[in-house]
Amino acid sequence: MPQTCSDSSQQLFKYFLQTVQPKSKKTLAKNGVKNIVVVDGVRIPFLQSGTSLAFEIGCLGTLAKLPLYSLVQIFLSDFFSQRVAEHIVYGTVIQEVKTSNVAREAALGAGFSDKTPAHTVTMACISSNQAMTTGVGLIASGQCDVVVAGGVELMSDVPIRHSRKMRKTLLSLNRAKTLGQRLALVVKIRPDYFAPELPAVAEFSTSETMGHSADRLAAAFAVSRVEQDEYALRSHTLARKAQDEGLLTDVIPFKVPGKDTVIRDNGVRPSSMEQMGKLKAAFVKPYGTVTAANSSFLTDGASAVLIMSEEKALAMGYKPKAYLRDFVYVSQDPKDQLLLGPTYGTPKVLERAGLTMADIDVFEFHEAFAGQILANFKAMDSDWFAQNYMGRKSKVGAPPLEKFNKWGGSLSLGHPFGATGCRLVMTAAHRLKKEGGQYGVVAACAAGGQGHAMIVELYPQ
Questions:
Q1: Which part of the chain is the Thiolase C-terminal domain (predicted)?
Q2: What average pLDDT does this structure show over 63-77?
């Protein structure tokens, strides 16, 4: 098993000794289909944007900058063997123009062979989910046996563009051949040309922010402010407990240039219902129920998993953690059903695998908003919704809370858009080992009204 240092190996070994042996169920292996496994996975601590990875003005006025690709380079150079990877796939959402194929630039910067293909995918909040399943497809089709997949987001350094008018002028200046032509263009520049275009966390098709959609969704399913605050408090409380008990073993220390080494997610902040209740509506004002406390926050972070065919992993002496089994992608109305990806994806992936909700031991869903999670619960537990919107005869049922996101979630741990999927898979794998389960469901919603669901099966111990 690849590790960064002997201490990490000792910690993982101790962790394995303390785990519960899983109960025995049928395996989801299929005749004629390669078994694909996650050998291991890591992530740097997820950090609130504007904190540890933010810009700093040095004493000489210089701007200290940590490029997006360097977050990925950490994994490729320190954790994964350059001699192993046959393909690298990374997901990201807010792309840096100079390194739009962040996977390739990071691989080259980490010293990988220039013969190792690398490409970048984007699918909003499920970008690293797409990276992983792309890797699964490459292995299943026989293109390769070893893929490094992951995701990265650096919200502390989002690209900010000139206005369209200014961009047009600058491009024209670049083509101008004479001084007179250049001057004629320059004199046309007006003050409003200098207004920057900031990236917005909003739907292009509806011009609505995700927070507005979450507020309307919560209202549609009668999810109260109290319920949302209670769920958010649960997420933070469980995340803090998981941190204190050393359960988040996929987190590796990260040395921020010019700063201290960060060792844990810094957005985990258990509060109280009284304190949370004082916050005002963040989106639909003044009567909305979505607040800063019951929403996920803008986050910097990166994650990676090592995916192999089972045959290759065993031949190399690795002990896999889990099988990646069936998965689905779904899409629905981006206005009224933007955040219902888990509701649509979960029953489909269960049917593909021949499982029911009762067979699932671990649920790991992306928490965009507390209201989003609770609305999905109500939709999944509604025969009426299943019949009228999903074309199903009956509901699939809501996940029981005692199996759901028991080590915290995106509300507390953070949500780097491109990196969360790998965290969900690794948490599911580790929880299955710890809790003695066999099957886990990973699910997430994403911008554009899309969603993803996957079955993770514990590797036999």
A1: 318-457
A2: 61
